């Protein structure tokens, strides 16, 4: 059975895609077959997730990079309108079938050593009128890594996210602090300290602003090694 986890964020634009791309390179550099999946994407005019495309482009791979993998496996649902999945899907009267997502995840995961799933926005985002992203993660019994948008507001967003995950018994593999955002360095450093202290969840690493992710492959290899041990 392959190892799989969800990269969730403290908010939309926290840096989930950038971290997924880095980890994808990191796992590959360990000689592992790694997959990337985005269950639902929105704001995609061409019917395919720009986030998944970014990860594949970073690794220099095509959508059919692995036998048996289709675009549906990479990105089961894609919507044009840039909004929460429940809203973007309702606009085009296309229901998001959670069973279908589980089926595609299972098929994909069975072919890979590691399957990275990128979350959608923050963890309390609704997929339809009844289910939040966090509900699906719990039902699928997947662990998560939390990308923290390390700037003002990070303490509140991180602790709320971790409490929503803990309440549902979801295993948290660790925190990944994304330092790409404008904020005083003293505050960023203290965020890393206080969030770990108050939550009891450990950091898996700090991601700096990167003009090229490939230059940081070693950073992500270490993160991938730490994750493998916890999966
Ligand atoms: N460490 C970084 N270095 C350079 N640019 C970054 C970094 N982290 C994030 N960015 C940039 O910030 C923006 C948001 O990051 P990203 O797309 O990874 O967020 P996300 O959490 O995946 O967002 P979404 O909720 O839309 O999926 C992107 O333009 C990305 O290139
Ligand atoms: Mg993204």
Please provide a brief summary of the model.
The chain has a single domain, classed as P-loop containing nucleotide triphosphate hydrolases (Rossmann fold).
The major sheet is characterized as: 6 strands, parallel
Instruction: Name the bound molecules.
Output: adenosine-5'-triphosphate, magnesium ion
Strand content: 15-25%
CATH architecture: 3-Layer(aba) Sandwich
Shape call: globular
- In DSSP terms, counting alpha (H) and pi (I) runs of 4 or more, how many helices? 9
Structural Rg: 17 Å
User: Quick one: CATH class?
Assistant: Alpha Beta
Look up the CATH topology: Rossmann fold
What's the domain count?
A: 1
Describe the model:
This protein has 231 residues and is α/β, with parallel strands linked by helices. It has a single domain (3-230), classed as Rossmann fold, CATH 3.40.50. Helices cover 43% and strands 19% of the residues. The protein contains 9 helices and 8 strands. The chain has helices at residues 16-29, 50-59, 71-74, 85-91, 98-111, 133-139, 154-167, 185-199, 217-230, and strands at residues 3-9, 34-38, 40-41, 77-78, 114-122, 144-149, 172-178, 203-207. Strands 2-5-1-6-7-8 form a 6-stranded parallel sheet, sandwiched between helices. Strands 3-4 form a two-stranded parallel sheet. Helix 8 links the parallel strand 7 (172-178) and strand 8. It starts with a strand and ends with a helix. Adenosine-5'-triphosphate is lined by residues 9, 12-18, 51, 121, 178, 180, 207, 209-210.
